[in-house]
Specification:
The protein is α/β, with parallel strands linked by helices. The chain is 27% helix and 20% strand. The chain has 6 helices and 12 strands. Strands 5-4-3-6-7-8 form a 6-stranded mixed beta sheet. A two-stranded antiparallel ribbon has the order 1-2. Helix 2 crosses helix 3.
């Protein structure tokens, strides 16, 4: 990869969160797509990579495969819906009433409102189910697989390509200024966020999210 230069806008991850400055290895960063806001860029790596690696590496999702995403209205869920669709899967999403319209807008083939229907009681079978914590494959003795996020630069480039092409969009449910980080954490902990909860850092023009001589940071920090 071409080395990053001072002033480059980047997307990735580094040491520390909820901070105005952060340090990251160059291998944990890739150039930020020009059309992405800094809020979207900062909110993409953790949840986007988790969804990508879960669907591609654990689920080995293929075109035409039936995939169910439980919790599709949250941070990982909104990425998973779009990535699964980009893989050509037939996607069924489970979410609350307040998130149904948002999830449909992401391209889900079917949406189940869990307040009205229990998907576990239906006859439909799925090749792969993505839930908030483990991943459950119904066709392999209901084995549970854990996903251990890996910040491989190749995967960052793959995520960047999905974002740049428009196949995947970062959904920001709500943002908080850095001074209200406790409120942001509380909002995330309640589990009612529609998409990502972001923490923003106001910086002078031309300095937000850029690579500096002694700091590399992916824009306003989004730690939830």
């Amino acid at each position: 990869m071409k080395r990053l230069a001072v002033g480059d806008e980047v997307i990735g991850s580094g040491a520390g969160t909820f901070a105005e400055y952060a340090i990251a290895a160059e291998t944990n960063l890739v150039p930020k797509p020009a059309d992405l806001t800094f809020e979207q860029a900062a909110s993409a790596p953790m949840t986007g990579l988790t969804a990508l690696q879960a669907l591609r590496d654990v689920g080995k999702v293929q075109p035409g495969q039936k995939v169910l995403i439980n919790g599709a209205g949250g941070g990982i869920g909104t990425f998973a819906v779009q990535i699964a669709r980009s893989f050509g899967a037939e996607v069924t999403d489970v979410c609350s009433t307040s998130k149904v319209d948002r999830v449909r807008s992401l391209g889900a083939d079917h949406v189940i409102d869990y307040t009205q229907e229990d998907f576990t009681q239906g006859d439909e079978r799925y090749g792969f189910i993505l839930v908030k914590a483990p991943l459950l494959s119904l066709f392999v003795s209901q084995r549970i697989h854990s996903v251990h996020l890996s910040s491989e630069q190749d995967d960052l480039f793959a995520l960047r390509e999905l974002l740049e092409s428009g196949k995947v969009t970062t959904i920001i449910g709500r943002t908080y200024p850095l001074s209200q980080t406790p409120e942001a954490i509380a909002c995330f902990g309640e589990g009612h966020a529609r998409g990502k909860v972001g923490v923003t850092v106001e910086r002078s023009a031309g300095r937000r999210g850029s690579v500096g001589p002694r700091q590399r940071r992916p824009g306003p920090r989004a730690g939830t």
